[in-house]
Amino acid sequence: MDAIVQTLLAHPWLAALTVFLCWHATRAVYLIYLSPLAIFPGSKWAALGEYWEAYWNIGTRPGQKGQTLFKLEEMHKRLGAALRMGPNEVHVYDPQFYHKLYFPNSKFYKDPSMHKVLGAPTSTLAESDPIRHKQRKAPLEPLFAKRNMQALEPMLMEHVNHCCGRFDEFYDAGKPVSMEWALKSLAMDMVSQFAFGKSLGALDDPEFKSLPVQVFKQYLPSLHIIKAFPFIRLLHKLPRWLTHRMSRSIAMGHELEQFAARRIDDFVAQKDAGKLPSFPTIMERLLIPIPEKGYIVPDKQGLRDEILTTISAGDDTTGIANMVTLYNIVRNPVIHSRLLAELKTVLPEPESHAPYPELEKLPYLTAVIKEGLRYSSPAASRTPRLVPPGGVTLPDGRYVPAGTRIGMAIYHIHYNDSIFENPRTFDPDRWLQAPEEVARLSRFMVAFSRGSRSCLGINLAYMEMYMAIGYLIRRFDFQLAGTTPADMAWDDMVVPEFHGELLVVPKRRDS
Ligand code: HEM
């Protein structure tokens, strides 16, 4: 013993290494065997840190990254409804429990450390403090209300028409359209025009690969890496000329930030000149303080973060929901012809127009859209919350202490065969059953989450989907151009990242 002590005293680096190893060994024993969360089964690696999640989520090849979601599904089926997911995290699979976590005024708040990865801590999306969140949401909540959405219809219609015109160019040139890029561009132009009063012009890009659409497509997957290695955020502190050489994504991200900052300046200049768009915009609302609700106009960086997180929340999600829905219509002749027949009742000619409330009333289109949202689950990943003081008891009687991170994944609800029969089948008819059955299913249709932190853009997203799916299917006879189900397999890179492309030939209908 003396000899060991002498050696350590003689070699301070060895002493430091020994302390380091002993500390980690003690911590590992505590986390795996003694912590209150040790009662939950799961990978030992998950109990120790971010390694397990990083191992399954980070990679380069399709099918070898973004796999945590699927791995959890498989493990839950083997090991039960609650799993150890991290040193301080439990993951739950039981659909009934969803409504205990996510409901209005839930005390299960967002975990600030989790949302730090977004890099916009004061935005409505990332804010975890319930009071500050309410203040941030104050100008946006009424703006996104359904009654306001009607005023956006002409603007959204212009983008649908523009998108159709671009499809004609592809058809005339004999080129198939990559629908993921095209529909994300459509969603981008819709949401950015709602944000700034002027779109970012994503549909004008020759291949639908404009800077903003590319940045969000690349940025969201990088969140897995930032979560596992948070120090990567420090790269932003390095001189820009250096980070731009190191990473094209960072360079593009900065370009987008500057672009958004210029758009904010333009908006303010237009507003000062008394020139506001004819429809309500996010920018306009963000610039009006609401003292009685504690809302103070953010500084320029706060405005930029708010706008960019809102655009990012509304672009990929809606684009993916539309693409997956469209794919399932086009590859399914029975669904396709039934939908087209219904659309013809309100859109007798391919170029006809119907007011949005008429589209919304179509039962089959509604069923197709609900099924598209369930099936695509664009925000599939777990959305963790913190257990409030007093802890929580799970349905099986196990206790989870206060301060534990606890989460569930929307995908696990939507693909749970105890709720949705044959969940891997795209079946709009499930939404046309007896009212009690539809009410039961609707309780578990959680694409937009539930409660105080559910999607602010739900009404806009529905409107975009009704208009995109309704008009595109009525106007075009889409043919798949070689896309297979394997291309449509996806990895969970915060939003689904598909293994291949949905390529279609957009042929106009004559009647
Ligand atoms: C099909 C399309 C969409 C889906 C599936 C979707 C889904 C979601 C989900 C699941 C959340 C909760 C995230 C969490 O718990 O951390 C959320 C939040 C949010 N979404 Fe959406 N979303 C969609 C479209 C949109 C659109 C079009 C916008 C706006 C332009 C939008 C803006 C937001 C915002 C601002 C939040 C944060 C709300 C808050 O924390 O109070 N989303 N969305």
From TrEMBL:
Heme binds at C455. InterPro entries: Cyt_P450, Cyt_P450_CS, Cyt_P450_E_grp-I, Cyt_P450_sf, Cytochrome_P450_monoxygenase. Belongs to the cytochrome P450 family. This is Cytochrome P450. GO terms for molecular function: heme binding; iron ion binding; monooxygenase activity; oxidoreductase activity, acting on paired donors, with incorporation or reduction of molecular oxygen. It holds the Pfam family p450. Transmembrane segments: none annotated. Its cofactor is heme. Gene3D superfamilies: Cytochrome P450. The keyword Metal-binding applies. The keyword Iron applies. Keywords: Heme, Iron, Metal-binding, Monooxygenase, Oxidoreductase.
